[in-house]
Amino acid sequence: MKIAILGGDGFVGWPTSLHLSQLGHDVHIIDNLSRRWIDTELGVQSLTPMDSIQERTRIWHEETGRRIHFHLIDIARDYDVLKNWLTENQPDAIVHFAEQRAAPYSMKSDRHKNYTVNNNVNATHNLLNALVETDTDAHLIHLGTMGVYGYSTVGAAIPEGYLPVGIETMDGATATQEILYPANPGSIYHMTKCLDQLLFQFYAKNDGLRITDLHQGIVWGTHTDQTRRHPQLINRFDYDGDYGTVLNRFLIQAAIGYPLTVHGTGGQTRAFIHIQDSVRCIELALKSAPERGDKVKIFNQMTETHRVRDLAEIVARIADAKIAYLPNPRKEAAENDLVVKNDQFLQLGLNPITLEEGLLEEVVDVAKKFAYRVDRSRIPAASAWTKDIKPTLNTDP
Ligand code: NAD
Ligand code: USQ
To answer: Among residues of the chain, what percentage have pLDDT more than 70?
Structure first.
């Protein structure tokens, strides 16, 4: 298949591009490299040394003989360029990762809120609009988030996208209707993923676009089988207070002797998936495309749930680290339970990698190897959810 990977220079997009290229697909990365610019804006860099996208693809060709093509396009702003690219290339499938994906960055200031909404909503809408306009019958796979559901389980596991509800009819009987699970975002970023869902519902109904939306949990780890093949194929790894996600942050903090930054009581329960499984799920979703006229297919792309303080305790044990319980810069439930259905990927053959201590140690090893690149002053989470929350800017004892 000819596959366009939008956002293919990013943390999940890059290993996905390598994985699909390895499987024999003709892979085209489309990216505006905004994530690299945001590193510059924030004064941070990936823990792992990342080469330019052109250099990465050159090394991939040297290693495997396979070509990954790169196209510098801003899909939120260069609508005509995107349209022309689709007209000329007519991909069989499109994997859409190209959004601003950090909740703390999206809450940093009014400017960051605007940027996140404009970038994410326009990116998704431009793409849908251009698919219709160019008669491109590609299977669109979008990376959504578990955060569209909120994180509370009300005595039942969170289903995969749709919820059957009973409604009382005029004659007093009960009719059942299937609705999108009620959206309950916890940040501006998560809100954009809720808006994306509505755009997908409309374009699938109105234009028969074939769409799969993957509600992914927090991705942890760094290597996949392909990124391990050469030092210059290494994946990016974010550890800073805006882009670093919780488990990856704990691992790097443990590696450099920084107390693990638990927000509040650490009673927040979240869904997780290893990067290798994330990449494999995309492969499985590609093989299970909806037909024209089908409703949007929704999968929960996660493999296990954990409470933040439990993760901190596991990491503290394996790496002999200390834990710091800090005031929470976010507005979120202090404690929650979370049970999630993920039957569809399991039925398609996903054999999940679970968070075992051996695997965590491997990531601590990556973290230790590149610890010299860490700027400790960029570790505190400096973005607060409301004006009256004052983030703790120095958590380094
Ligand atoms: P990332 O920031 O590392 O990668 C996103 C890529 O998209 C970057 O290379 C960026 O330059 C590009 N991009 C952004 N806006 C663009 C635009 N307008 N035009 C072209 N390119 C653009 O993020 P990631 O961690 O790889 O996440 C990928 C997707 O998966 C995101 O949509 C995110 O919401 C979702 N997701 C990520 C996680 C996670 O833990 N990392 C978890 C669940 C869902
Ligand atoms: N947390 C800490 N300490 C930290 C960092 C985070 O206790 O140092 C807590 C947060 O307060 C939160 C939880 O850990 O309760 C998760 O935070 P996170 O930054 O790891 O994850 P989140 O902001 O939800 O976003 C990440 C990705 C996003 C994706 C989402 C999936 O950045 O792209 O959509 O995970 S999910 O969380 O399932 O919605």
So the answer is: 100
